[in-house]
Amino acid sequence: MSKNIYLEAMEIFHAAADLIGLDHRIRLELEEPDYEHIFYVTADLEDRLVPLPESEAAQFSKLGASTVTAEHLVPLYDGKMVLQQGAMRDGTLMIENGVVRLAGKGLYRIVPGRCEQFKAYRIQHNQARGPYKGGLRFHQDVSLDTFKILASEMTWKTAIADVPFGGGKGGIKLDPRLYSRTELQRISLRYMYKLKQLVGPNLDIPAPDVGTNSEVMAWMMRQFTDGERERHLGRGVVTGKDVRIGGSHGRTKATGQGLAYCVDDWFMSKGMSLKGARVTVQGFGNVGSYAAEILAGMGAKIIAVQDADGSVMNPNGLDINALMDYVHNNKANLKKSVAGFPGGEVLGRNDFWSIETDVCIPAALGNVINAEVAQKIRAKVVVEGANHPTLPDGDEVLEKKGIDLIPDVIANAGGVTVSYYEWVQNKRMEQWTEAEVNTKLERAIRANYRIIRDIADDKPKRTAEYDSHGFTVGKKISTRAAAMVLALKRIEAHYRLEGFSQ
Predict the structure, then answer these.
(1) Are residues 262 and 279 in contact, defined by beta-carbon separation less than 8 angstroms?
(2) What is the domain partition of the chain in residue ranges?
């Protein structure tokens, strides 16, 4: 049978299981998810304005211009526009055979809204240590195997972060940039409606991931709790919420913050200073942008940033605050891309990985660093902000080149750690300050990362912050294997001490 991406991702699990002599039954419990849910959701879409082909423009040469207020037109990144309800109340529409001319924009055909069906997923991998926990991804390239990989990685990540959760993951196959806010709300509510019997504050707790955010979490919390007699007891059904409705201070930046603590700790372990260190970042969403902002604030120079639509570079360091404003607050930047940023020079897509740097941070999607890409990388350390960005053949090349690695299961564990803090605050009906959250997060990330380094170096230590005795395996191993060993030993303890229900 040919190897699929899930089996390939699980190779490190089996290697670590062999290292610690994991019991066969425990291995079987962890090899495949507890549950794989695939279902479909439907939602009504709004009317769209689709640019008219040049070949059809001549027959509408006498069509007068229509005026529509900007609030009723939602531009999408593919050139289409959503024509929202109310356009006819406040504007002047001149229509000929379903075509309108917008002043300064050109001719568009009105395409009536329709109902669309979307494929949806929720994978619940393991709950030995606590409720399933994992993000919701809205992306056009998701698949069952993608979510199986991500759900299993959440099982490892929650164990490494030492929070009482298991692993889960899910989402919808769609490109959110092709839908209006109203449409995304309808889709999200319907998804939670279908999912309600499978999730809950003590059962399965979703969070934001690629293509989702705190607003999506707010919609889903409302759908889950609406009509319940004690609805506020259910606010912990999702994390990553706005702080005004039960979210945690520090959660938005948490993944980038945790990554920055790992980078700083790596420099400390090498006796080097982070100040002046060169950093390249692939991906400028929540993880990449905040990691860049925080590392720049710690004195590092972010010399290059790449996303799906472009790359920018400045050898002297990009102005990250200006770049974040350009990407996230510029209404004209429909793709939310770094492309066109005036504060940096254009960088060829294939040139990004070849830049000489100290820290390389893949913080976009998975499976981007294969052997070919790894061969190009000229960095001292690769820090995985994304989930599963490096393929096994890429790992081999990085190791041969002597490039250190901080694996995703610790580098981006800040998000799930602060999600746990949010969940605890929801349970207690209280709210902690950002300083309290970051103090707890820093202690947790540094301690667990140091345990992983001790396992990799086969040098167990006992300090005031942590004890790595009982985790080492008697020889030096890779950092990725060390992280998996830590996860499996913590999960294994539950099976060995609790046994199996019959």
Answers:
(1) no
(2) 34-43+116-245, 46-113, 254-411
Among residues 148, 157, 169, 301, the one annotated as catalytic is 169
Query: Is 376 a catalytic site residue?
Result: no
Backbone torsion region of residue 259, taken as left when φ is above 0, otherwise alpha when ψ lies between -120 and 50, otherwise beta: alpha
Per-residue CA distances from 118 to 36, 196, 337 (Å): 17, 17, 26
Which of left, alpha, beta for 383 (phi over 0: left; psi -120 to 50: alpha)? beta
Q: Which CATH architecture has domain 34-43+116-245?
A: 3-Layer(aba) Sandwich (3.40)
- Whether 383 and 411 have beta carbons less than 8 Å apart is answered as yes
Count of helices and strands (H, E) across the chain: 16, 19
Cα distance between residue 406 and residue 20, in whole Å: 21
Query: Are 34-43+116-245 and 254-411 in the same CATH fold?
Result: yes
C-beta neighbour count of 317 within 10 angstroms: 15
Whole-model pTM over 0.90: yes
Give CATH for domain 254-411: 3.40.50.720
Work out the end-to-end distance of the chain between its first and last CA atoms, rounded to an integer number of angstroms: 33
Residue that the structure tokens 């590392």 belong to:
295
* DSSP letters for 400-466: HTT-EEE-HHHHTTHHHHHHHHHHHHHHHT----HHHHHHHHHHHHHHHHHHHHHHHHT---B-SS-
The total number of residues shown for the chain amounts to 502
pLDDT by residue for the chain (502 residues), tens only, comes to: 346 889 999 999 999 999 999 999 999 999 999 999 999 999 999 999 999 999 999 999 999 999 888 888 999 989 999 998 877 777 788 999 999 999 889 999 999 999 999 999 999 999 999 999 999 999 999 999 999 999 999 999 999 999 999 999 999 999 999 999 999 999 999 999 999 999 999 999 999 999 999 999 999 999 999 999 999 999 999 999 999 999 999 999 999 999 999 999 999 999 999 999 999 999 999 999 999 999 999 999 999 999 988 999 999 999 999 999 999 888 787 778 898 899 999 888 889 999 999 999 999 988 899 999 999 999 999 999 999 999 999 999 999 999 999 999 999 999 999 999 999 999 999 999 999 999 999 999 999 999 999 999 999 999 999 999 999 999 999 999 999 999 999 999 999 999 998 8
